[in-house]
Fold:
Amino acid sequence: AGRTTEIPCDPAFAYHYVHVDDVAEALITGLAAESLPSLVYNVGGGEALTMPEIAARARAVLPGAQVALVPGADDVPDVQTEFDIGRIGRELGWRPRHDMGSGILAYREALRAGRVA
Structure:
């Protein structure tokens, strides 16, 4: 919309984002599997990113994006470390299809098409 998005954050805080389509695919993969070698799988985007890294990726795929990071904290400041999604990949062959950049672009297109609240 041409406005600056202001994001309060701790620049070292790690976030784990995963595209909803990837979550749905992981669930379908598990449901369709002939057997589940394990009963617990992590599903995620495959990387932990700080808000400065997320902002940089947004700027890379959305030329002209205006993002201002200001001091603050996440509303839910749970400490997160790297989520290992290796087991679901090894055992069920699932991997996320969307990285942060493609997820941002997909969200923009959904907004433009009126498919999101």
In short: The helical segments are 20-32, 51-61, 86-92, 100-113. The chain has a mean pLDDT of 91.
